[in-house]
Specification:
Length: 268
């Protein structure tokens, strides 16, 4: 990695806290219980912040600011984190795939920094439990909204960059996004609908999707499968494919796209 890149963020992180442009009276107070939550989160995520105020700010949704009129939100951190994540992912892809051209790398990068992946990583880190939301957003299910989780993931990355520099942020991104890159390339840059459907079923129905072969035909070397999936008590499909895996992916895609659309309507 270019040493110039690694030095600049380190110098930035050594600036006074006033350079973060965080006003103490504009941020939520961190009480004893919140301190415990922040400490537990850092242990789980494998990070350590010098500024607990900065870490806490990364979880403050704009709905808090909208309702109180006095509290800063994580939107500026999100803006910063988006760029840091993009640069880190571009570096990882450049190093990992020396034979892929710019177009191929761009496709993988686009999928890696997508809302689906960001929100999935955020859920794995239990960021949904750390969010500070306004009452209205809380009541409307804001903790499970993909857009909010993805934005908060970017804000956390931005906060980590400011707090500890690019090297630490890059290490964090590598730890959690290299597995995602592997999954994306294994699926030829397409979304893994079985995993996405399982995720949405766990969050919405607290259950797992169930797949069932309803038909198969043709000789063994040209076998076709028809598979349905039960997601939350509703049957979707059938998905078709020349093997069970492909048919299950197709059935999962049908179910996921319907459920995702319902979720988006409910969140508007």
């Amino acid at each position: 990695m270019n040493s110039r890149l690694s030095k600049t963020p380190t110098n930035l992180s050594n600036h006074s806290k006033s350079s973060f442009l965080i006003k103490k009276d504009s941020c939520p107070l961190i009480g004893p219980e919140r301190k415990k939550q922040l400490a537990a989160f850092q242990k789980t995520a494998g990070i350590r912040f010098k500024s607990q105020t900065l870490l806490n700010l990364s979880f403050v949704h704009r709905s808090v600011s909208n309702e109180t009129g006095a509290v800063e939100s994580n939107e500026r951190l999100e803006f910063l984190g988006d760029s840091i994540l993009g640069a880190a992912c571009a570096t990882l892809l450049y190093q990992k795939f020396p034979l892929k051209n710019e177009g191929e790398l761009a496709k993988i990068k686009s999928a890696t920094v997508s809302e689906d992946v960001l929100s999935s990583v955020a859920r794995n880190l239990k960021i949904d439990t750390m969010l500070l939301l306004g009452k209205g957003e809380e009541l409307s299910g804001g903790r499970e909204k993909k857009a909010i989780l993805a934005d908060t993931m970017e804000a956390l990355i931005g906060a980590l960059y400011l707090d500890s520099g690019y090297k630490t942020a890059f290490s964090f991104i590598s730890r959690y996004f290299i597995p995602e890159i592997g999954g994306i390339t294994e699926n030829n840059y397409h979304r893994d609908y079985k995993s996405l459907l399982q995720e949405i079923c766990q969050h919405n129905f607290h259950s797992y999707p169930q797949y069932k072969i309803i038909k198969q035909s043709g000789p063994e070397h040209e076998r076709m499968f028809w598979i349905e999936v039960n997601a939350g008590g509703t049957v979707y499909g059938p998905g078709m494919g020349r093997n069970k895996k492909t048919a299950e992916q197709e059935a999962a895609k049908i179910a996921y796209l319907v459920l995702e659309n319902i979720e988006q309507v409910d969140n508007t």
